[in-house]
Amino acid sequence: MPDRFDMLHLVGLLVVAGGLLLLVLTPQPEAGAMHGGRLDRAMEKQMLARARTDFLKQTYAPVVDLTASGEYAAALLKLKELGREYPGEPHGDILRGEILLAQQAWQPATASFVRGVKGNGDYVDAKSPLSRYESISRVVDEGLRQVGAQVKQHPDNSSLQETMRDLYYLQSRLAGGCE
Amino acid sequence: MPTLDRHFWLVIVASLALGIAGVGLAVAGNPENSGICISCFLENSAGALGLHDNARMQYLRPEIIGFVLGAVLSAGLFREFNSRGGSAPLVRLLAGIFLMIGCGVFIGCPIKLFLRLTAGDLTSLAGLAGLVAGVWIGLRGLAAGIHFGRAEKQRGSGWWIPCLGVALLLFYLFRPGFLLFSTSGSAAQHAPMLLSLGAGLLLGMLAQRSRFCITGSIRDSFLMRGRTPLLWGLLVFVVVAVGFNLFSGQFRLGMYGQPGAHLQHFWSFAGMALVGWLSVLIGGCPFRQLIKAGEGDADAGLVVIGMVIGGGLVQAWGLTATAAGVPFYGKVATLVGFLFLLTNSLLWRDRTS
Fold first, then answer.
1. Which of B43, B52, B142, B258 has its CA 20 to 30 A from that of A176?
2. A–B interface: beta-carbon pairs under 8 A
3. Does residue A16 sit within a domain?
4. How far is the alpha carbon of B305 from chain A, nearest alpha carbon, in Å?
5. What is the distance between the alpha carbons of residues A55 and A64, in angstroms, rounded to a whole number?
6. Which DSSP symbol is given to B108?
7. A168 vs B259: CB contact, 8 Å cut-off?
């Protein structure tokens, strides 16, 4: 049989549980401010991600334009200039990879894509606004065919083997998985 | 051959369901070869709770909630809920952290090891060898007298992990502002909510009834050979998963370019050896710990809490392997895990018998 001590605790439990329920279910004037500001971290993160994407697209637009018009040397020069301003930015590596790919320079293109993907995995996500899934797939498919054939001819060439490792890395990232 | 009793068929049904759900959830939207992966899911869930800041690994996985609540339902329904605990709590909490380190270095838990293998990923063979070796070493340790002490009936302890499961389910359904959900990366890939939760609940119930456990299957195979139903269960799981992977076009035999895999075989071996060894000493693989926690086992509950903390740490400290390989601190952490195991093996050995 519950004694007075138990009863007091049971009543306390019911009162606190009821209070908690009331607190959660009643809209609080300050909760809205907190939800829209400090506490809604998910939305804040999404806004930051979108702002970053827009910033990258805007900043690197001249490089994209130069590449589209076939002025690869000028595009690489512009990338170098931006690289001084934003060192280590993976977007620059990805764009360099695309330019080198357009110039059929498979090995440096692969290395550049690897640096970019290691810096930001969004480039291998098919659904990401930054996605470069198609161009990275192309470099992997063509690279494995071309570099693979060269490795068979020169099995001791460490530079070719390095490129093969890079290609396998990209292939694995394109395949997805949880990481 | 094992006795073809009710327990045998329960194990077979649980294994069948695990094989179907393991591949099926990946087909339905979960990351490749990760239809079910306790370590990946716990890393995702830790991220959703704000325990790490990898923006590509934040999602409160309903499967994990389902496993625990399914086990609670089943244990309650069949009067097997037993609130107990008190066996080396801190050691178990730390073991949970090291389980996640071992899984992170391999990229996946023992269930995912088999899912990777059945999808044709040959890099997982090194992990399989490590897991078997770890279980064998753990068994030798048990035979030599290592024991973390007897659990006692504790009226209050066993309810808290089920309560945490309910709280996480409410979080998942009502999405308070402090939760984080990835919009890109593997955590943004997930099967539909009801399917994930339903599969989790069903597997939780079946695993609770059958006591299915990956490392337990290997352990019992060493002890009882073909007489253990768990070995047959593991075989059914493998056959079903291979069949489903072939049928759904997810089977790609090879060593290179596999999803969520790396080529540092020694570290794959070491990561899974750590997991196998730890699992034998604490009485079950990461999946089994979740199920036991749902049955009221507070010791397993502490392992689960340790795994959640570990899920945050491996991501926040960059200990997990990627397709590029195992990071330096991941290797260091794995070796520290073996130091932890060896030290505890010395400290907890009963030399009187």
1. B52
2. 97
3. no
4. 21
5. 14
6. S
7. no
